[in-house]
Amino acid sequence: MHPRLDYYSASPKAMKAMIAMEALTSNLSIEPALLHLIKIRASQVNGCAFCTDMHSLDARRLGETERRMYAIAVWRDSDFFNLRERAALAWTEAVTLLAQTRVPDTVYAEAREQFTEGEMVDLTIAVNTINSWNRLAVSFRQTPSA
Q1: What is the pTM of this model?
Q2: Does a structural domain hold residue 85?
Q3: Are 34 and 84 in contact (CB under 8 A)?
Q4: Which residues, including other chains, have CB under 8 Å from residue 88's CB and lie 6 or more apart?
Q5: Per the domain annotation, does 3 fall within a domain?
Q6: Domain assignment present for 81
Q7: How many structural domains are present in the chain?
Q8: pLDDT per residue over 54-104, tens digit each?
Q9: The domain that contains 54 carries what CATH number?
Q10: Could you read off the pLDDT of 68-80 as tens digits, one per residue?
Q11: Nearest Cα residue to 80 out of 91, 65, 92, 102
């Protein structure tokens, strides 16, 4: 697969805004290790190989185990994730698949047991941001380096 265009050079202003949003997301209340888990999961759901690869590498640099990373795609059937991580992964999937899920009340209730109101907003902003990156990378066929 070949990239369709370089969105950084095609629209520097738009990308400046995306980079600012990413910087903001990284400085909110959600811990970095959890941020990478949700970025990986959203990227998997969206079929974004570039972002899945990038955030898997970043998670490994932060000490995430390969075993847990392999299990992110099947987190519901794995005992590797704590309640907070499970709630974040469920929230990530529901928000990512918004048109299909309408973000069920049960998913919200589980997330609220683990996250404060402020953290819920921060978590949702993080999910929205990675979904935006995924849509850019998938639409313009950005692929990971070999």
Answers
A1: 0.96
A2: yes
A3: yes
A4: 30, 34, 37, 38, 111, 114, 115, 123
A5: no
A6: yes
A7: 1
A8: 999 999 999 999 999 999 999 999 999 999 999 999 999 999 999 999 999
A9: 1.20.1290.10
A10: 999 999 999 999 9
A11: 65
